[in-house]
User: Fold this.
Amino acid sequence: MKILLTGGGTLGPVTPLLGLVEHWRAENKNIDLVWAGTTKGPEGALISANDIRFISIASVKVPRYATPYWFAMPFLGIYAFIESWTLLRNERPDVIVTAGGYVSVPLVILGRFMGIPSWVHQQDVLPGLANKMMSKFARKVSVTFDSSKDIFPASKTEVTGNAVRVGIAAGDRDSGFRKFNLAPDRKTILVLGGGGGSDWINESVAALAGDLTKEWQVLHITGSDKYESVEVENPHYAVEPVIHEGMDDAYAIADLVICRAGLGTMTELAFVGKAAIVIPMPDSHQEMNAFQLFEHQAAIVMDQTETTPQILLNTIKTVITDENSRMRLVANLKLTFPKDGTEKIAGGVMKLGESTASEWKRASKKKVEVELEDADVADDDLNEKVASPTGDSTARNDELVDAEIEDKPISMDGMSIKEQVERALKGKKIDIEEGEGDENPFEVKDL
Assistant:
């Protein structure tokens, strides 16, 4: 079975799908995986690091405000559909799986008309425009929260929870301290700006570097293109752009996490059991995610527009020094996210893909049987033409032998070898050139 995974631009729609991949591989599923992502997003290196074939295609993002980009969108959209159609035609997957991202939209839409079913997973409480569009063409939609199910058609929607990479819980503290050159006798604050990097989080935490490193230490993951923007020279402050391998060790050494409210990150924090200070992106779907956490007392939620560096520092001090509060946050976070989301989604995708593969197999078998019947009829017609009008094929056989001896193109009722082979191949055009030697006077160059 071939599964096409798609999503990118940020790592938000990527990490849950990697959880599915990990599950399938652990179950020894016989699958062929290919990933379609953006050309400049952070996902390419992460996908390749997980030994998945990566193909980049055009992506058209719909901006939320007026911009000259609107004038280019129709042309970029056409190009994106052409690239998506070419990819689907060449790869011919049995099922398409996405957890969001504009790069996935043409693939899901075209897949519907090409007979390729799609599974769309909605992580966040409120869906973005991409998932709203794709849900209309998808065969199946899964959602993380029960409060999201009424947004999509009831006949195709299932509450599953979110998918997560189980391997992220396998980190080792000693290995983590060595890998990031940090001290094992200090509490560690892990800062996650997301795959694309949050400028506000990067700048705010970096400004507090001197205060934070007096007692603790910081592992700051800035985002792929934001590494140079965090200039901190301190032995207790480690800066990394993106961690493709070793994120399990990063989680293992963390005592407190500062991050956005992306559901991929929150699901991982629930799985590994880490307390978090969550600062959602203003005016985005993350605010509803953060509200869900606030209602369940599953994280410390802060409003970016009302948070100064000093307020952030005081909050960090309060949480990191109170172990009971951190344990309570972790317990509530674990209760907020169902544990079996990965298994439910992975199993559902396999069933959907298997049904499609069976349909294609039956259709292919039926097509072969029809072609064989046509070939039998063609052979009968050909035998009739070879025989002489009187029913005696001797004269015709002599003609064929004479033609071979004279090294001329053998004809059959005026047909050359090229025409005969094309006829046998149901009209497919080929190139036949004269070869060397008497045993094979002609070679088929391109079938």
